[in-house]
Amino acid sequence: MYLCNLKFLIVTASEEPERLLHSVALPEDCELEVCSVSELDESRLTSLDCAIISDGDPSALIKAESVKGVKKVLLTESSELKKMSAWELDPADDIFVMPDDARYDKTILTTHFRRLINTMKNESDARKEKIYFETAIDSIPDLVWFKDSAGAHLIVNDSFCKLVEKTKEQIYKRGHYYIWDIPKEEYEKGEYVCLESEDEVVQARATCVFDEKIKTHGGMRQFKTYKSPLIDADGSIFGTCGIAHDVTDLHNMNNEINVIIESMPYAIIVEDNSGIIVNTNEEFNLMFGVKENLKGITTNQWIGNYITGRIERVPDKDEFMINDGGETKTINFKQQYISDIFGETIGSMGIFRDITIERKNELMTIKSANTDFLTKLNNRRSLFAYLEKKKRSPQFTFVCVDLDNFKQVNDVYGHHKGDEALLIVTNVMKESFPDDFIARLGGDEFLIVINRNSDIEQIKKQVSEFQSKLNAEYTRSEEFKNLTTSIGIAVETLAKCGKYDFDKILRQSDRALYKAKNGGKAQFCVYE
Hints:
Blueprint: E1 4-11, H1 16-23, E2 30-37, E3 50-54, H2 60-65, E4 71-77, H3 78-81, H4 86-89, E5 94-98, H5 106-138, E6 143-148, E7 153-156, H6 158-164, H7 168-171, H8 176-179, H9 184-189, H10 198-204, E8 208-216, E9 219-231, E10 237-246, H11 253-263, E11 267-272, E12 277-280, H12 282-288, H13 299-307, E13 311-313, E14 319-324, E15 327-339, E16 345-354, H14 356-369, H15 380-389, E17 395-404, H16 406-413, H17 415-432, E18 437-442, E19 445-450, H18 456-474, E20 484-493, H19 494-497, H20 502-518, E21 524-526
Parallel strand pairs: 1-2, 1-3, 3-4, 4-5, 20-21
Antiparallel strand pairs: 6-7, 6-10, 8-9, 9-10, 11-12, 11-16, 13-14, 14-15, 15-16, 17-19, 17-20, 18-19
Helix pairs in contact: 1-5, 16-17, 17-18
């Protein structure tokens, strides 16, 4: 990613905003230029990214309104904000409202500044990524297009514009018959235009390949088109994209195959019926680090000479792991047999796709579904999955932990302090019960599952040491000095119950917990 240099102008009589802005931890590949002035000069806005207006005349927002491309942020107290009219506030892109008694509160203001910088960095990255994308597709000699779900063209590349002799603005949100200058009646016959293949692509939910004839200004042309559905994060399809290669002037099938496999975004190897390699594309060479022509050798020779010892098959899947310079990649493999005009198999095409990121995202999704967002501990879903997996264990001990006076911390010092208290108890639990399963049940309630044969006196000692260690941590802070823990313990053995009822054990530990709370808090009780 390119370096993002953000230029700020602060209109203020104080040096504090600039100092706090400089104190913010910057995102990667980002740097700041900050200048403070006591009065706004419109001429200074032309080369800026953001103007932060504080202390001065609010009409500075009006002065800055005419300057496009500059983010305008008003830093003001709530009492001052009430005095301003809607038309005075309208030019502001954002408003940082500070408490009247803490105008330059370090925590609040640095939080505002950090979010502002991250937002601007993300906007800058998005602009660059748009440039990357547009530059990339405009560099492709093949036709590239993106359509919405109704079939209207949204994005096309320069090659597309050149062929239809129209600008991107003229093509935007228009259909086939307008773009290709085909009378609507002729278009509806479907004889000289792109096949209505979007429905097939949507149904397949995968890339489909078509041979299509198109009537252009220069006459009929034959295209090999690759169309893919655009699938949103929720699984819905919001459009299609396509790549069309003009194969009209190809003189033989071999040339067509070469063009096709080189335009594919996947690594491809083609072999004949005897297993002799007849072609590979550049993506294949890059994926496997091939630096010489493989034509003429067998696939087995390639495996033996180049990747033996670097690959490991994934059981029950068309996948394998490959070591690439110390990095392990997951590759999906599909084999497509090639038949001649008589239906006889004359070779095969192997298609390799790097799905490393897909697999990592799947693992992250699974982890996120089973992990508490704040503490990174297991959640309820993960808890019951764990219990089901360990249901034949000889003994379970549930240690239910609840913070005393936690609501007071949230009410007096704010939820960010409450979160800090939760993280402290999380760390102490991990230190005190390093080999046991710990879950956050919700709010300030946690559960420690001890899945081993343990003497109750040993468990009491471990719980008591945990409480002492946690109390020592909390008494270091004025905000947390009144925090203690109430703990309920329930023990069950398989020999005694025959089959665990985990909901019952959880209720027992919960009853012991509330007995500890009703008995004065800051203690633990064992369910009898």
